[in-house]
């Protein structure tokens, strides 16, 4: 059994995509980030960066004590190694998968996340910031679109690189991006969206928090107003 400490955000969805694809036995432990659950001592014990997702694997491969893992990219690598799936077969395939996973972790996710913040959550519009992150998101979409020319998936076969990137493309309209401008990315996106595991992963997320639920000012304060001193 795997405990998944989760909230339905792009980073949270990465992990449910993997778990649904593999059929691993797991239990969702909601971490309501708008209510501050990510700052509770029990959660910080497994996720010291006070960010979800995190997992606790009660049946690790070595048969020892439960293993906890935080950071969504590290969780995907851990689960891929545990199951022997979605990471590639050869060392070269694994390197290819890893570099695109790191591309998402270091580029697509952070830049799209800033796009979301200044477009949707900032208390007042800051045109320079909005323009900066909309353009950088657009550039990254172009990188992914070029990569997907002649490929069904980022590394040829469906992998944790695809699972990491897909949830950050889901809010493309909020990011002010038009998928029609990126035909190979759009083809890839539609193929992943139609997978039964993707449908089920997002259904579970909607049960926990509907995607159209508004964010209150108090929730914004909890999410965006923390410092080292305040936690």
Q: Give the name of the CATH architecture of the largest domain.
A: 3-Layer(aba) Sandwich
CATH topology of the largest domain: Glutaredoxin
Shape: globular
Number of domains: 2
- What string, H for helix and E for strand, traces the elements in order? EHEHEEHHHHHHH
Per DSSP, the total helix count is 9
**Highest-level CATH class of the largest domain:** Alpha Beta
Q: Looking across the biggest beta sheet, what order are the strands in?
A: 2-1-3-4
**What distance separates the N and C termini?**
31 Å
The total count of strands amounts to 4
> Mean of residue pLDDT?
96
Task: Summarize the main sheet.
Answer: 4 strands, mixed
Class derived from helix and strand content: alpha+beta
Q: Proportion of β residues?
A: 5-15%
Q: In percent, how helical is the residue content?
A: 40-55%
The rounded Rg comes to 18 Å
> Spans with pLDDT under 50 lasting ≥5 residues?
none
CATH superfamily of the largest domain, by name, is Glutaredoxin
